[in-house]
Amino acid sequence: MALTNRYKSAPGAGTLAALILVLVFGSPWYVDWARDNTDPDSAGGWFLRLLAWPAWRFDSSDSIQEIFADDLRAILVVVLTFLFLYLLPGSQLARARGTISQFFAGWAAFVFAGAFAALFTTLIRTNPSLLGAFQAAGDGAEYGLFVGWIIGIATLGGYRGRR
């Protein structure tokens, strides 16, 4: 186990965790299951539905523009997670790997990634508005806040980037 942590980069591990979250919980199958089988008025149901936020899909009755925006949002969550994990200095400034600052840097990267992915993709939707962009960014930040701890845990013990 110590050998694998020695070579694990924090941005790589966090991005892999984000990719798995988006692929599994953003899939059309999970989104349909969460919508049909969870109670939005319970904490567990709310969280299970929140996991489906960066939903991606292949087909729908929506316009191509809306489908593209949803798919791009899911891709941007993963790409921006890597970017922010690489750029945030928390794990770089920590005296030792695996510290609480590394956990919070991973978590914060996911909050920023969700917010910016939603903000950017709102601009390509049908009838975009500034209010809609702000509300979407809030939804993305909410997703990152309540799910980002998973990314924070994934980044623990990894080195920051190039050695």
* Helix/strand order, N-terminal first: HHHHHHHH
**What percent of residues are in strands?**
under 5%
* Low-confidence parts: 1-5
Judged by helices, strands and strand pairing, the structural class is: mainly alpha
- Helical content stands at over 70%
Largest sheet: none
The quaternary state of the protein chains shown equals: single chain
Q: Number of folding domains?
A: 1
Radius of gyration: 16 Å
Dominant shape: globular
Q: Mean of the pLDDT scores? A: 87
Terminal-residue CA separation: 20 Å
Quickly count the helices.
Answer: 8
Number of strands: 0
Describe this structure in words.
The chain is an all-alpha fold and 163 residues long. The chain contains eight helices and no strands. Helix 2 (10-25) runs antiparallel to helix 5 (64-87), helix 2 packs across helix 8 and helix 7 (100-122) runs antiparallel to helix 8. The protein is globular, with a radius of gyration of 16 Å. The two termini are 20 Å apart.
